[in-house]
Every structure is written in C-alpha cells, then in structure tokens.
Amino acid sequence: MLPAAALFWEYIFTDSILLTQINSVIASSVALILSLIGLDKLTQFPGQKSMVTVLPTLLASGLIVGLMLLVFRLPYSVYYLSLSAALGLLYCFVSQVFLRSVMQVTIGYVPIGRYESLLNINNVRWIELTKCFKPASHDRLPFHAVVADFADKGLSGEWEQLLAEAALQGTPVYSILQVSESLTGRLPIKHLYENNLGSLLPSQSYLLVKRIADTAIIIMSAPFVTPIALLIALAIKWEGRHSGSAVLFKQRRIGQGGKLFIMYKFRSMIPSAEASGSQMASYNDMRVTKFGCFIRKTRLDELPQFINVLKGEMSLIGPRPEQLDFVESFNETIPFYRYRHIVKPGISGWAQVMHGYASDEDETKVKLEHDFFYIKNFSLTLDLLIVIKTIQTMVTGFGAR
C-alpha cells in the first residue's frame, strides 16, 4: 500500500484508478504473500539461518508473478513494482532480524531418561520441570513446548498428569526423539528402531515429479553450464599437461537400490591419488591439485554428474553416492546404512549442506543421520531449501576438502 500511496495518490483522490495500477497492487500483494508463506515453510526446517532464504524466496515469488503478468499480457507499472519489491525486501530482512533477536525457543523438559542429550543443543532455552509445577495455575505456560522421554519407565503417573495438563493448556508435548530431530536435522541411528521404518518411505509420486524436474532443469541450464564446463576442462588439461592425466575422473558408486553405476567428476586430484586404494578426503589433502582445490571448494567438480542425472542414475538433490569399498565396510559397522539407498543419490544433499565432507566413520554416522532426516522429510520444500543452501555453500566453500 505504501508505494500505491506514494505513486497513485492523485488517481486515488480523483477516483480515476487505472487498470494498470490495480494489476500492479494485486501482483505486488500476491508476491509478498507468496514470499511470507515460503519463508514460513522454509524456516520450519532446522539448522538453517532464515536470513539466507529471504532473497531467493522473494526472487522466486517475483518471478512467478512476473511470468503471470507476461503470460496473460496484463498492463502493470514498472515504477510501482520496483518500489514495492525494494520495500518488500527491506521488510522481510528487517522482520527476520527482529524475530531472531527477540524470539528464543523455550522448552520445558522432564528430567527423566535421555534428556541430557538435548541440553547440548544450542539456541534453545531449556527449563527443567519439577513435579510440583502446576500448569493449571498459569493462564499461559512460559514454554513453546514440553518434552519428555516417553520410553523411560521412570515417567510416573505424576509426570503423566503434568504433561496432560500442559497439553490441555495448549502447549504441545513432544517426545525427546521428535524434538532432537526437529532441532538438529538428524534422525539418530541408534534410536531408528523407535521410528516406524514405513514412515521413512519416500513419496512415489514426488519421485516421479522430481525425475521430470531434474531433466527439465538440466536441459534448460545446458546453455549456461556447457561453456563453464569446457573452460574447467581446458584448465584441468593445461594443469596436467605434463602428467597426461584425464580431464574426467570416473569411479564406481552405489546408487538407488544398491545398484552400481559409474559416476563422473572433473579430476581434482593427482593421477596417483588412489594408487593404494580408496581413501576419504581430508583437510588440506596433499593429493588435491591447485586448480582442483578451487573447483572442489566451489563444487564445480560435480558438473559432469549432470550426465548421471540425465541417465537416471542420480538426482540433483539426494544423499551423496558412496564408493563401493566404503559401502561394504559401512554396511558391516553402521546399523541401517543400506537404507540410505532407498532414494537416488544426489549431486547435493541435506548432509552436504549441513555437515560437509566426512573423513572417518564417526562423521559418516552423523551424515547418515542427516540422510535419514532427508528421506523422512522428502518434499519439494526441503529440496528448495537444499538448493538455496547449496548456492550458499558454493559461495562460502563450506565443508570443502
């Protein structure tokens, strides 16, 4: 309304509003509403800064509304929409800064069972409950939620009554596993038996939609990606001109359903990098070339995997495909490791943007918990958030080795 008051006030007072102005106000309102809905959906996922999602969400909403105006050839005011977009961007950034500064999640917990693991989660104010606490004596409980370990036998009748009263007061009551999962973005492996594995089955209809979207995105991006890939190939060839190393690196990886496939990458290591067998990448890995360090940090070494996506062996988003030797080892030592192969592996994924590379088995277990969270929350919204965080990762080089 502010841009309308600033630009159209003469028309408003003379009661001579034009169709162009009406269309512009409606388009601006729809774009802002879509942006707020998108931000609300994206910020429901844990471990991400809402500030990062503001600009991509606004750009996506503006693109949708702009396409509608062009497709239906509706008249609009460029000046109004430009001013409205600037104010909308400012409003969303300021509101996110305000919300992050004044709102802290407060959770009351029952000090029984596995509650101690929760206290290590940052950015949450934890308040220990006592049996003498009476929810009925409060008009409104000072918690966003209450959490308890329902699997512990020490949860007596008094605690159960307290939790029931809290629920009647309108405060949600969650299990420890629910809260841990929602705050960390990880589904603990050692407690996976407490989750119904059937609930971790990905949506078959979305798998089909995702396959179509992957193909369409790669075809549309080909005119931009191909020149970049050619320049990278020339740079790798020049750097390895004395060693005669190949531009592409091919390696057997495990895909959906445990099937083997050949994955392509731009070579970023010396030709003899795996002469003594498969090895996990480490920080400051001496096997990485100078140019290879750059393309690994920006994730440009993954571009040839677009071929794997077109062949249907991979997806743009999903758990990273692992090497055969590592999979055989992890299957023996990490419970439920095979389950990550229920969806197609991806060029980028939830574990990559949240954790980065894994250099040992312990870090692999953490990444696996992120993979399980992705499979359980398999959706378009989560994929869009991963795309946003992937761009952030490419810019910052987070997790590169």
Structure report:
This protein is of the alpha/beta class. It folds into three domains: 2-102, no CATH class; 105-184, Rossmann fold; 204-396, no CATH class. It contains 14 helices and eight strands. Strand 3 (145-148), helix 6 and strand 4 form a beta-alpha-beta unit. Helix 3 packs parallel to helix 5. The protein is flat and about 75 Å long.
Order of helices and strands: HHHHHEEEHEHHEEHHEHEHHH
Q: What coarse outline follows from CA principal-axis ratios? A: flat
Radius of gyration: 26 Å
Number of domains: 3
- Judged by helices, strands and strand pairing, the structural class is alpha/beta
Contiguous low-pLDDT stretches (5 residues minimum) are none
What is the terminal-to-terminal distance? 49 Å
Q: Largest sheet, described in full?
A: 4 strands, parallel
Helical segment count: 14
The overall average pLDDT, rounded, is: 83
Report the helical percentage.
40-55%
Give the strand order, joined by hyphens, for the main sheet.
2-1-3-4
- β-strand percent reads 5-15%
Number of strands: 8
